[in-house]
Design a protein that fits this description.
Structural class: alpha/beta
CATH architecture of the largest domain: 3-Layer(aba) Sandwich
Helix content: 40-55%
Number of strands: 13
CATH topology of the largest domain: Rossmann fold
Number of domains: 2
Largest sheet: 5 strands, parallel
Strand order of the largest sheet: 6-7-5-10-11
Distance between the termini: 59 Å
Length: 360
């Protein structure tokens, strides 16, 4: 009997998930952790689809059987390797129809217990998109570029707080330079899937910290319902001196594995914001890059990023913006202060604050 999305995901915590969609469908987006054993490859899927449109379901089914007949034993062998202990797996396709049903029947016939997902990947996606409309007690960690917000978030997690690292999930630090040293970005759909996977593990009754972000993190977009919640949530604005932020940025970008194209990536990132920086500042930054003067590059570009961030912050309800002045770059200490402040001032039921953060 097919499982609901909720039950399927619960089982997926301990059982292998087989996605029988085509490689192209899987590459675009999939359940995190799923293994692709495609019933049809990309070309075969197109052929079956065309046959269905031209000659109807029966003809398409016969063609499908012709295509997978010689592959059936291979499917069983691949599935067995995924769970040698108890020979049990989960299977899904796009709509929970013929592809996953046929694959599950084959595995069950071969002695492997296979259970399908009711409604398939489409039902899963509906659940993904719906969850971000559910209200949560969010706290937003704000701060200008170079404030070390990601490290502060990690320290909050170390101290028992619930966090979502949007930049980590998106493989991008948000700025024009944000892709340098990162893994390739997922599609927005896959970003939503991974975000959902992290989201569903959190206790909805407890506060969740997220970094202040624009709607897009590189090429990935935060789901609109979540972003609207973030924009309406209280902000702890960590205000750190520019000189301290410059030092951090220099450490971060000189600490990246500096391959042969490291310098060209920095040049390209600087050129992308030429219109925003202005011609003279851009050229000054490029000249500094040529001299490996990363501090000057950071100092010049932060003028633009600071103005952009403060503009975004000004669009929020200012009664929810709480400023904290930080002198030293000490993420663990800042996180402790944030935890103490949240425990004292944040009232989950009314989503309000009793006061602002004291200066450290």
């Amino acid at each position: 009997m097919p499982l609901s999305v909720s039950d399927f995901l619960t089982q997926a915590d301990s059982l292998p998930v087989i996605d029988v969609r085509s490689p192209g469908e899987f590459a675009h987006a999939h359940l995190p952790g799923a293994i692709n054993i495609p019933l049809f490859d990309n070309e075969e899927r197109a052929l079956v689809g065309t046959k269905y449109k031209q000659a109807g379901k029966d003809a398409a089914v016969l063609l499908g059987l012709d295509l997978i007949g010689i592959k059936m034993s291979g499917f069983v062998r691949q599935a067995r390797k995924l769970n040698l202990t108890n020979k049990e797996v989960l299977v899904h396709c796009w709509r929970g129809g013929m592809r996953s049903g046929s694959f599950a029947w084959l595995l069950n016939t071969a002695g492997i217990k296979a259970t399908t997902l009711e409604g398939g990947y489409k039902a899963y996606r509906n659940a993904v998109l719906a969850v971000f409309s559910e209200p949560r007690n969010l706290l937003i960690l704000g701060g200008k570029t170079g404030s070390g917000k990601t490290d502060i978030l990690k320290q909050l997690a170390e101290q028992g707080e619930q966090i979502i690292d949007l930049e980590g999930l998106a493989h991008h630090k948000g700025s024009s330079y944000g892709a340098i040293g990162q893994l390739p970005q997922p599609s927005t759909e896959q970003f939503e899937n991974v975000l959902f996977g992290a989201w569903r593990k959190l206790d909805p009754g407890k506060q969740i910290w997220l970094e202040d972000e624009s709607r897009n993190v590189g090429s990935c977009y935060v789901p609109m319902p979540l972003w609207l919640q973030m924009r309406a949530a209280p902000v702890a604005f960590v205000d750190m001196p520019k000189s301290v932020r410059v030092e951090r940025l220099v450490r971060e970008y000189t600490g990246i594995d500096r391959g042969a194209n490291h310098h060209s990536l920095l040049v390209e990132a600087t050129e992308r914001i030429r219109k925003r920086l202005g011609g003279k500042i851009t050229q000054d930054a490029l000249n500094a890059l040529a001299q490996n003067d990363y501090a000057t590059v950071a100092d010049l570009t932060l003028d633009y990023y600071d103005k952009a961030y403060l503009h975004g912050l000004s669009q929020r309800d200012q009664s929810l913006v709480n400023k904290i002045e930080i002198v030293a770059d000490e993420p663990a200490q800042t996180a402790r202060q944030l935890v103490s402040w949240a425990e004292t001032n944040y009232i989950s039921s009314s989503r309000s604050f009793a006061g602002s953060l004291p200066a450290s």
